[in-house]
Amino acid sequence: MNAIPLVVIGAGGFGRETLDVVGANNADPSSPTFKIIGVLDSNPSERNLARLSKRDVLYLGSELSWLETSEPMNYVIGIGSPRTRELVDQRFRAAGWSAATLVHPTAVIGTDCEIGEGSVICGGVHVSTNVTIGRQAHLNPNSTIGHDSFIGHYVSVNPGAVVSGDVRVEDRTLIGASATILQGLRVGAGAVVAAAACVTRDVQSGTVVRGVPAK
Ligand SMILES: CC(C)(COP(=O)(O)OP(=O)(O)OC[C@H]1O[C@@H](n2cnc3c(N)ncnc32)[C@H](O)[C@@H]1OP(=O)(O)O)[C@@H](O)C(=O)NCCC(=O)NCCS
Known about the structure:
This protein is α/β, with parallel strands linked by helices and 215 residues long. The chain has 2 domains: 4-99, Rossmann fold (3-Layer(aba) Sandwich), CATH 3.40.50.720; 101-204, Hexapeptide repeat proteins (UDP N-Acetylglucosamine Acyltransferase, domain 1). Helix content is 20%, strand content 27%. The protein has helices spanning 13-25, 46-54, 63-69, 82-94, and strands spanning 4-9, 34-40, 59-61, 74-77, 98-99, 102-103, 108-109, 114-115, 120-121, 126-127, 132-133, 138-139, 144-145, 150-151, 156-157, 162-163, 168-169, 174-175, 180-181, 186-187, 192-193, 198-199, 208-209. The radius of gyration is 17 Å and the shape is globular. It starts with a strand and ends in a 6-residue tail after the last strand. Coenzyme A binds at residues 140, 158-159, 176-177, 192, 194-196, 208, 210-211. Coenzyme A is lined by residues 140, 158-159, 176-177, 192, 194-196, 208, 210-211.
């Protein structure tokens, strides 16, 4: 099978972690799943450009320049901010590009799960059974999603966060590192759950909650 050509968007921390997820999918050098074309970023820092060059990944330039000049390709977005990710996704989708979905081989995905297009599931993630994950969601390393839960579009679940069973996390929500959402709750669209918070009640859309119990 020919390797799928892939452009990664974002040279920052999560962009390069995404490169690692791609690399883990290419573990067999005789039949790699993806061929990394390079990384697009509209405003990369010098430090991040040096980090890309250190790992021999080509920096391709800004997103807009590629959208104007290149034929549509496959892309994956390595940008942690849900809203920014949504805007970038809309642009590339409108230009006819195709979002690739990445699952690290050490992630465990249970039965009856759906993973939306463009999502990135990192190493050590555990997704239980009957879970729906929307478009362009990011599940960071060692996060867990409980049974019968729903994770909306453009949601970011940061490292080590625990979403319990039967939870509804709506679009563009950010769940901070090591936060816990107790079972059966709803986290409204665009909400932010702070790192290490424990959510014991529903969270209203567009609000930020922090602490234990989260307020
Ligand atoms: C909650 C959060 C969104 C707040 O961001 P912010 O608005 O920029 O907050 P600030 O840093 O200005 O801090 C505002 C106040 O909240 C407190 N605070 C910040 N993060 C907190 C947290 N996780 N839990 C409890 N309190 C927190 C600060 O101490 C500060 O308190 P003060 O006003 O009494 O001094 C952010 O701190 C957070 O937790 N983001 C998730 C981070 C994460 O998951 N990182 C991993 C990336 S891979």
